[in-house]
Amino acid sequence: MVKDFSDLELKSLSNKAECCALVKIIIKENEVLVKENKRLKELVDKDSLTNLYGLNKYEAKLLSVVGDFFRTSQDYSAVFFDVNNFRNFNNIYSHDTGDEVLKTLADVLKVNKREDDSVYRRGNKSDEFLAIIKGKSYEAKNFAERVLSSFWENLSGKYSRAMSGLSAGICDLETALSVLEKEENRQLSFEDNHLLADKLTLLADEAMLAAKKFKYGKGNIIIYSPEQEKLTLFPNY
After folding, report:
1. How many other C-beta atoms are found inside a 10 Å radius of the C-beta of residue 226?
2. 3-class state of residue 65 by DSSP
3. Are 45 and 37 within 8 A, CB to CB?
4. What phi and psi, each to the nearest 5 degrees, are found at residue 183?
């Protein structure tokens, strides 16, 4: 038996079809907007010169690995790199040449990191670069040694060693936790992830600054130790 539809019913069905079509169009347009917003956010988060993510992404990733550390005891290390004498380098060789050096370093970092590692530029006007390495300090040291060696190989013969070398500082979460718990006089937990993330960043930065000022000259790798006189030095040259 075939049902006969009244004009009102047909109009109602037509309106429903139009509504469904309109909903599909809205959903499609929303998907396009979501993708475009994601693309624009990527542009904002990424450094245009090196195509590396910046400090915001570093901080977000660090909080994530700190949470992983508290849950599973999987250690991670922060590695800070600084291009030695970069201001003088720019004055001598030009800012355009300096930009090329920074792009070279970014490429070296990308090539030498593992799948679980991540690398960042500290700011779009900075000559400092950051890495989060899965593993303890000695594993991060292996990464840093590869970076320093490869960076110099890429620039060998072009510029003086003193003008284009790197210094690096390293600290792992286990060390940062030990230092922080001593300062706080209590055992830390997952709720303290921001505190631990900030402390790791601070200690890796301190180690990098020590590498730049060390009496044997720049171009060193230093692993943070709570006692300044026991900083572990790994000269690159």
Report:
1. 11
2. helix
3. no
4. -70, -40
Q: Kindly report, residue by residue over 114-157, the tens digit of the pLDDT.
A: 999 999 999 888 899 999 999 999 999 999 999 999 998 888 77
User: Which amino acid, one-letter code, is at 6?
Assistant: S
Alpha carbons 234 and 220: distance in angstroms, whole number: 6
Domains of the chain from N-terminus onward: 55-235 (3.30.70.270)
Cα–Cα distance for residue pair 212/217, rounded to 1 Å: 7
199-230 per-position pLDDT tens digit? 999 999 999 998 888 655 567 899 998 775 44
CA–CA separation, 65 vs 70, rounded Å?
A: 9
Contacts of residue 4, defined as CB under 8 A and 6 or more positions apart, other chains included, come to: none
Closest CA to 224 of 80, 112, 106, 122: 80
Q: What percent of the chain is predicted at pLDDT more than 90?
A: 57
